[in-house]
């Protein structure tokens, strides 16, 4: 039994260690890979992880200077090229991460593409591009990050889905199907990887004021149609999605597993 004195000591040491963590950042000492981390939502999540003390590898097909992040965080940020559609390319990414930092604690499978088109018009190539990137890409990343996370004693995987995973819009069949499958893949991964100490969750953003939302934002007719669905009256900011990713990656998210967290400010669908 804990005496009241030692209880007080435990409580104050817990408060102190929380305080230390807050000072060093909630992800201090962790190494994160963010696919699609060179722009849009991925870049915002990479920035938030760096702010919380993690080292981050931003991975995408094209190199990006990331001058602001490098100026603020120096050696803790690096860029590695990867095509998540290729298993070999993803294996090389994990090898590069292990060589550079010696561990991987957090993976965000964020790389994604959208190709709109009604089913009868949609090309095979566009269909495959969406499924290969959004679904098979997450499969490759999960499969090849697991040994790295096992070596680190566990880890966190966060897949980036979308509000469209559960909502229907003409012309979005490929995108919606890929994200719905990604959510099921998340739940299956959570069950299979729990014993290895790896938690797997999903974030499903609504409309976010960056990246893929830009073509909608710039089209007056589409923008007013979509803005009517946003209960909060505005699209989300990348930082609001990044905050959810930090929660899932940090100690605060230690008992959340196999969950799809909708971050959309409330979304109507008619
Ligand atoms: N913005 C939104 O409103 C919104 C809403 C819901 C969900 N989402 C989801 O959030 C994620 C990010 O969206 P975003 O709006 O930030 O998109 P974005 O600005 O178009 O960025 C996509 C990122 O993915 C990378 N990428 C694409 N294909 C890749 C591949 N095969 N291999 C590696 N990297 C690849 C891109 O870099 P390269 O082109 O150089 O490879 C880029 O860094 C996506 O999964 C998207 O579905 C976005």
Automatic annotation (TrEMBL):
SUPFAM superfamilies: NAD(P)-binding Rossmann-fold domains. Residues 30-206 form the Ketoreductase domain. Pfam families: adh_short_C2. It comes from the Bacteria. SMART domains: PKS_KR. Keywords: Oxidoreductase. The keyword Oxidoreductase applies. InterPro entries: KR_dom (IPR057326), NAD(P)-bd_dom_sf (IPR036291), SDR_fam (IPR002347). The keyword Oxidoreductase applies. Belongs to the short-chain dehydrogenases/reductases (SDR) family. This is 3-oxoacyl-ACP reductase FabG. It comes from Amycolatopsis tucumanensis. The lineage of its organism: Bacteria, Bacillati, Actinomycetota, Actinomycetes, Pseudonocardiales.
């Amino acid at each position: 039994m804990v005496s009241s004195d030692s209880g007080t000591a435990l409580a104050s040491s817990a408060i102190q260690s929380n305080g230390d963590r807050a000072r060093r950042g909630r992800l201090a000492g962790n190494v994160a890979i963010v696919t699609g981390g060179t722009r849009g939502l991925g870049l915002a999540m990479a920035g938030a992880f760096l702010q919380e003390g993690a080292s981050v590898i931003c991975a995408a097909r094209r190199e990006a200077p990331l001058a602001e992040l490098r100026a603020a965080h120096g050696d803790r940020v690096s860029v590695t090229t990867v095509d998540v559609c290729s298993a070999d390319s993803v294996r090389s990414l994990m090898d590069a991460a292990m060589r550079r930092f010696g561990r991987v604690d957090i993976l965000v499978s964020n790389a994604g593409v959208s190709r709109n088109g009604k089913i009868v018009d949609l090309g095979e190539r566009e269909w495959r591009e969406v499924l290969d990137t959004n679904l098979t890409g997450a499969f490759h990343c999960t499969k090849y990050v697991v040994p790295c996370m096992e070596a680190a004693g566990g880890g966190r995987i966060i897949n980036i889905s979308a509000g469209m995973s559960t909502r229907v819009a003409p012309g979005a069949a490929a995108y919606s199907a890929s994200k719905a499958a990604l959510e099921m893949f998340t739940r299956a991964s959570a069950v299979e990887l729990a014993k290895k100490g790896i938690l797997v969750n999903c974030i499903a953003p609504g409309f976010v004021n960056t990246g893929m939302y830009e073509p909608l934002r710039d089209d007056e007719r589409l923008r007013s149609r979509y803005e009517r669905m946003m209960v909060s009256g505005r699209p989300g900011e990348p930082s609001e999605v990044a905050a959810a990713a930090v929660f899932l990656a940090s100690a605060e998210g230690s008992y959340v597993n196999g969950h799809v967290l909708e971050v959309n400010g409330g979304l109507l669908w008619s």
